[in-house]
Amino acid sequence: MRRRRATVRTPSAVEPSQEMAALLKSVSAAHPGADLRPIERAYTVAACAHHGQLRKSGDPYITHPIAVATIVAELGMNPETVCAALLHDTVEDTSYSPAQLREEFGEEIAALVDGASTVDELERVAAVIRLNPACAPLSQSRETEILVLKLADRLHNMRTMRYLPTSVQKLKSRHTLRVHAPVADLLGMDTIRLELEELASAILYANLPSDKSRTIFERILAASVVVLPSAKRARCLEEWAGELSALPTRRARARFAVQMLRAIPHLAVELRWTAAHNSPRPVGALVDRIAGVLGIGGVFLTASTHWEMAAWVAGVVIFGVLALLAAILFARSEDPANRLRRLIRAWRNPGSTVRSSRRWRNRSGPP
Amino acid sequence: MDMPAYRMTLQTKLVLEEFLTEPSRKRYCLEVCDPVGLPSGTVYLILARFEGAGWLDSALEDPAVAEAAGRRRRRYYWLTPNGVEKARAALDHAYRPRRRPMPGWAPAQPDIGGAPA
Question: In whole angstroms, what is the distance from residue A339 CA to residue A209 CA?
């Protein structure tokens, strides 16, 4: 340990970078008041252990742990996981031993680093998801932290994949789509899943016959899915891109795009309706009961609470009726308007109105 | 009410029938469109509706298969066990005669009960 500390003082290896400052900033943004010293220490140890190693891109190796830790920190994970992210490759790729790690950073971080170095866990979760998509096999928070670490690791590797040979890129991309993307989906990390899928698809489908019309139709559909519920947009686009890419001719693709464009408004209503009916609605059940008691009036109440579109329609109808009533009442003569004005004045300051009207009467009227 | 009530339109019936011809087979959207002769938008709408109701389940295909075929991944749909039962029941109900034939004009049908008048 003493020797490690001695090498830690090597100036070039431990010069904290801008990336490190950004990392510390995002940790303290997510966890105000958190102790940042272990993270700084983890950085120093990792920078020292990876000293002299280079990424395939030619960058110093330490840029990778920092990038992974930044992804983890931006996801709002705890400082221990950020430390583990900085140290995740030390035991595997350098002479830094597990015993040293345990001694310097404690059991928890050592367990996270150990979990992140083994492949089995992610594969196991992905296999469970593949067999039974509805299940959620994550019981312990440490399991989740390890999975997040692995996903962040893969995400940064995918971002910097272009420096590897094409065959390795394809292999890793396939693995990402099979294993990492479903796990990210399970953890509810949509942005990570989308980026992983986009990066992997870009590599796997790079040599598809390049056809301008496909991307044009994809763009048109991408612009029009804004009316769909936000949770469903990416899924729909992905599915339609799959169908578009399989269609042989430009004409078939155009027909598909037009048909989907025509269906999108209906689809928006349908998906919102489904979401409203499938979500747990304790308030909705109460509204149902009240509506049942109200009879015919209850139909409007039920419709407006159950169905977003119906609420809008009801709102527009009510507003229209009010506007019509106001027009009928006030357009024919000035009397109702004057009466309303007097009423409002009386309501705002009741005493003064009475006094002023008396004064007015005394001044101008006959005694 | 344990499930939303759907209007069994002609399109809906066609799509459900297509799925029921081979309930265990997985199909993608355009694979359903061709035999039933409906536009993809309509079929997609019906698939989304029944997936929301739990009659259908879906998943993206294996990336290796898509890559070998030189295209992006498709989403495949299939009937859930519960969906098979409900689809059969819904089609039975939809095809039940609405009016009783006039006596003497057609052979009397056995009363299967609950037929709306």
Answer: 76
Mean pLDDT for B16-44 is: 91
Task: Render pLDDT for A9-62 as a digit per residue (tens, 0 to 9).
Answer: 343 444 567 788 888 888 888 888 888 888 989 999 998 888 888 888 888 898
8 A C-beta contact, residue A253 and residue A247? yes
Q: How many other β-carbons are positioned within 10 Å of the β-carbon of residue A182?
A: 20
Report the predicted TM-score, pTM, of the whole model to 2 decimal places. Answer: 0.56
Closest residue to B29, CB basis, from A201, A243, A274: A243
d(CA A255, CA A47): 56
Across the beta sheet with B56-60, the strand order is B27-28, B75-79, B56-60
Q: Which H or E element spans position B56?
A: strand B56-60
CB contact under 8 A, A262 and B75: no
**Is A92 in the active site?**
yes
Q: Name the A residues in 191-220 with CB < 8 Å from any B CB.
A: 200-201, 204-205, 208-209
Measure the CA–CA gap between A81 and A72, rounded to whole angstroms: 7
